[in-house]
Structure formats: structure tokens, C-alpha cells
């Protein structure tokens, strides 16, 4: 870790840490170095695995953001110091990207973004989904139910803390009834090619409006299971977030455009189900932060408020699931 910060100081870079990466931000470029961690669902524990995931990250993200991802660069060590973009004694790798101006990212321009902006985003995503690789196996109802069962199991401990017991039971029961009523619909969507290798994390902070066009970046590369699935499950993450932030008008424009572009006849049935799922996952993830010993009490209070709001949104979606 010390070498990372010394490298950043030498480059004049600002360092942002996530639980999986160090991100070195310079004036015009960004270097992303993966941490040697293994969380089970994500494994960066060896240099070879980190190298592989760096290349995979670049290849996958160029599908929707070809101008930003410049490639993978080596990091060598000399006299105990790291030197980036040198291959004499390679000890690490980094993804090199052009820096995206913060004011171009949707999460930072929610107040000023227009319906026309989201219409363009919907067109890009719909076109991407139609061209993406089919992964039919991941459309099976058993796989989706495994994910939702896991969510309910992992959030039971937060009943009365971030989610009301009545909301928990309502969402759980509505979800499980959906599987029984629409079992054939899951099979139909597999046959129709609606299960694709998507992005996996289309959120407001991963959408940028650049001079060259719409850029949707930072897709999930570390676990294919989190990226594969129904195209509506992929696209609706963004509209769910837009509604979470109070921009229902943008969410509506986005959804209507996607529906018109794809002619998806199951849209009204599947969309509230998947939006409920996405909102519930965000409630779960924010609830997990309450158990993080590294967070300050103020940060935990903020996480608790976010979790409560996401769970209430999930309840709202569950009420609209047609059963």
C-alpha cells in the first residue's frame, strides 16, 4: 500500500480507494490498480489474476465506452519504488483510462439532465443489448430465485433496523408468488434471446455525456454471474436509481424509449419485478455498511437512511407487480 501512495505522490495523483482497487487520478488520465483481495465472488489474489481481470475490464468496457479505456499498463519495481508504464521488472498492472470530467457524469448533473439525454442513453443501451452475446443458461428461474432467496436470507437480520417486518414479508411473498405465476415467462424469454452478457451495474455514476457520445463505463468484470441475465434486469438499474433520486420524469422517458426500441412485449410484467430486485439489493448493500467497523457513526447513519429509502422503494415496486 505504501508503494501505491508513493507512486501517486510522484505522479501528482489524487488517490481514491474502494474495497477492491486503488484509483490514481491525474489531470487527464486515471490509473486503476486492483488490490490483492479475495472475497469469494471476486478473486484478485494473484498477480496473474489481476492481470487477467485488467485486460477483461478493458475489453468489456470498450463495448459501451470505447474512447475512455486506453489499455493495460505494467508497473515495475526499482529500488523499492513503483514505476508505472515500465516493463523491466513487472510487479503489478493497472488499467489506464482517460479521465472523465465530473460534470459529465449523470450522478453529478441530475438537476440539469433532460428527457432527451435519457432518450439517448436508452437508445445506446437497447442497441447494446440486441448485439450482446446470448447466455441462455443464466435466464433459468432457478438462478434468479437463488439470487432473491440469498437477498432475503442476508437481510433478515436487518428487520426492524433498515426494513420493516411487514415490508420484508410482503416483498418476499410477492417475489415468490411471481415465480409460480410466471414460470413459463422465464422460459419464453430464454427462447426469445432476452438473456445477454450485459453491463451489470448501469447506475447514474456510470453514465457520462461526452463530446463523442454517451459513455457507460465501469461494468462488472470480476464475476460473469453478476453481468449475465435478462436485459430488463440490466437496463432497469438506471431507472430505479433515477426514481430513487426523484427524477421520475427521466426514468419514464428512459423506459419508454427502451420499450419502443426493443418492442419487448413482457415489459409491463417483468419491469416492476426486476426494479424491486434492484432496489432491494441496494437496500441490502447499504445495510451491510452498518456492520463495517471502519465506518464512522455519521457514515453509518447515512447508510441506514439510504437502506431504508431503497427498501421502501422496493416495497413500492412490489405493490405494482401484476399478480
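Sequence proposed for the structure above (323 residues):
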Amino acid at each position: 500500500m505504501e508503494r501505491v501512495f508513493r507512486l501517486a505522490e510522484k505522479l501528482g495523483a489524487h488517490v481514491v480507494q474502494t474495497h477492491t482497487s486503488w484509483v490514481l487520478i491525474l489531470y487527464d488520465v486515471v490509473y486503476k490498480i486492483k488490490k490483492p483481495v479475495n472475497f469469494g465472488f471476486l478473486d484478485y489474489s494473484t498477480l496473474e489474476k489481476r492481470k487477467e481481470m485488467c485486460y477483461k475490464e478493458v475489453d468489456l468496457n470498450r463495448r459501451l465506452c470505447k474512447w475512455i479505456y486506453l489499455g493495460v499498463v505494467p508497473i515495475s519495481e526499482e529500488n523499492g519504488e513503483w514505476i508505472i508504464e515500465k516493463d523491466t521488472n513487472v510487479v503489478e498492472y493497472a488499467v489506464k483510462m482517460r479521465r472523465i470530467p465530473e460534470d459529465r457524469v449523470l450522478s453529478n448533473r441530475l438537476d440539469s439532465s433532460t428527457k432527451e439525454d435519457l432518450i439517448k442513453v436508452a437508445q445506446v443501451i437497447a442497441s447494446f443489448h440486441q448485439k450482446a452475446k446470448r447466455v441462455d443458461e443464466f435466464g433459468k428461474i432457478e438462478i434468479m430465485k437463488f439470487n432473491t432467496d440469498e437477498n432475503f436470507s442476508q437481510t433478515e437480520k436487518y428487520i426492524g433496523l433498515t426494513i420493516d417486518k411487514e415490508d420484508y414479508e410482503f416483498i418476499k411473498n410477492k417475489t415468490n408468488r411471481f415465480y409460480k405465476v410466471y414460470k413459463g415467462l422465464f422460459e419464453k424469454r430464454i427462447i426469445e434471446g432476452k438473456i445477454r452478457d450485459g453491463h451489470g451495474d448501469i447506475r447514474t455514476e456510470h453514465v457520462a455525456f461526452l463530446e463523442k457520445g454517451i459513455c457507460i463505463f465501469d461494468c462488472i468484470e470480476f464475476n460473469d454471474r453478476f453481468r449475465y441475465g435478462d436485459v430488463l434486469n440490466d437496463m432497469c438499474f438506471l431507472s430505479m436509481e433515477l426514481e430513487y433520486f426523484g427524477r421520475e420524469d427521466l426514468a419514464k422517458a428512459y423506459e419508454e424509449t427502451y420499450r419502443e426500441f426493443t418492442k419487448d412485449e413482457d415489459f409491463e410484467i417483468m419491469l416492476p419485478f426486476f426494479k424491486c430486485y434492484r432496489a432491494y439489493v441496494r437496500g441490502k448493500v447499504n445495510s451491510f455498511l452498518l456492520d463495517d467497523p471502519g465506518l464512522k457513526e455519521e457514515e453509518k447513519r447515512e447508510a441506514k437512511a439510504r437502506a431504508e429509502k431503497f427498501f421502501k422503494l422496493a416495497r413500492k415496486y412490489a405493490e405494482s407487480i401484476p399478480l
